Amino acid sequence: MITLSAGVGVVPGVSGGSGAAGLTEGRERPYFDDVSPRNVSAVVGQSAVLRCRAKHIGNRTVSWMRKRDLHILTSHIFTYTGDARFSVLHPEPSDDWDLKVDYVQPRDAGVYECQINTEPKINMAVVLNVEAAAATIWGSQDVYVKKGSTISLTCSVNVHSSPPSSASVLWYHGNSVVDFDSPRGGISLETEKTEGGTTSKLLVTKAALADSGNYTCVPNNAHPASVSVHVLNGEHPAAMQTSNRAASYLLTSQLSCALLTYLLSSLTCR
Fold first, then answer.
1. Where does the signal peptide begin and end (predicted)?
2. What Cα–Cα distance (Å) separates residue 42 from each residue in 47, 103, 105, 245?
3. 3-state secondary structure 76-129
4. Domain assignments of the chain as residue spans, ordered by start
5. What is the mean pLDDT of the chain?
6. What CATH number belongs to 135-232?
7. What is the chain's Cα-based Rg?
8. Which of 228, 226, 227, 219 is nearest to 157 (CA)?
9. Comparing C-alpha atoms, which of 48, 165, 56 is closest to residue 108?
10. pLDDT tens, residue by residue, 168-195
């Protein structure tokens, strides 16, 4: 689960008179201690926690409502939905009434309201954003390296594997899994757990022309990502492109000359 930071203090969007504590007839009214993120991001399949801290509620009740269908999900510590993925986290004697969503799905994205049943009712909105689990390979989709140098490809996955291991991410060269024990040697993999997910780094030393081709990072719990590697035989990509254009120009000129010779020959015969 990844949460986006939010400002501390009273944030617009808390309705019904909520916000800082106020005194009414010598008594403190309930309010939201608005120090938690108002935007929460979670990856499909993982858990999300929408935080709500309600102060001075007395004998009143804190509830969570899903805004899109006005469905009451929880009230006090009880759940009022058949979807067992939703639950309320309220460790006694805290003021926290957090909504937990397990195994987040794309349909869970949207606005949720934490409510206190005062008169009038006060509420605080929290937005849940749901992201697809996916891999990303750093840099350009076309990687150019010189023959004999090292191919270095880094793949980031926005979900964690537990525990992080090489088995959590596979690398393919073309249609074949990269073999780290091949007679070729010089191929290694570094996998680590980061704050945002998992990072896998593929290193291929002493690159040969045969190491050119498509490389794909395939996580066991996210969409894959690919890049195309070009191993150059002492040639810069720009030079290679210039060479290709020159060859194409030469071939076109040869074809034009052949066609002209044929036409002149035909006219002479007549």
1. none
2. 7, 10, 9, 48
3. CCEECCCCCCEEEECCCCCCECEEEECCCCHHHCEEEEEEECCCCCEEEEEEEE
4. 31-131, 135-232
5. 81
6. 2.60.40.10
7. 31
8. 219
9. 48
10. 889 999 999 999 988 989 999 998 887 7
Q: Is the peptide bond before 237 cis (omega within 30 degrees of 0)?
A: no
Same fold? 31-131, 135-232: yes
Domain 31-131, CATH class in plain words: mainly beta
Classify residue 262 by its DSSP letter. Answer: H
CB-based burial, 12-29: b 16+ in 10 Å, e otherwise: eebeeebbeeeeeeeeeb
Cis amide prior to 163 (ω within 30 degrees): yes
Tokens describing residue 61: 């009740």
Judge residue 239's burial from the number of C-beta atoms within 10 Å of its C-beta, 0-12 exposed, 13-18 middle, 19 or more buried.
Answer: exposed
The model scores a pTM over 0.85: no
Question: pLDDT digits over 89-145, tens only?
Answer: 999 999 999 999 999 999 999 999 999 999 999 999 999 999 998 999 999 999 999
Q: Which residue has the tokens 């750093």?
A: 138
Cα 107 to chain centroid distance, Å, stands at 17
Residue 13's region, left for phi above 0, alpha for psi from -120 to 50, else beta, is: left
- Mean pLDDT value across residues 240-256: 45
Which residue type occupies 195?
E
Phi–psi pair at 145, nearest 5 degrees = -135, 150
Residue 115, amino acid: Q
Q: How far apart are CA 121 and CA 32, in angstroms?
A: 12
Residues making up the chain, counted from first to last: 270
The H-assigned helical ranges of the chain are 237-269
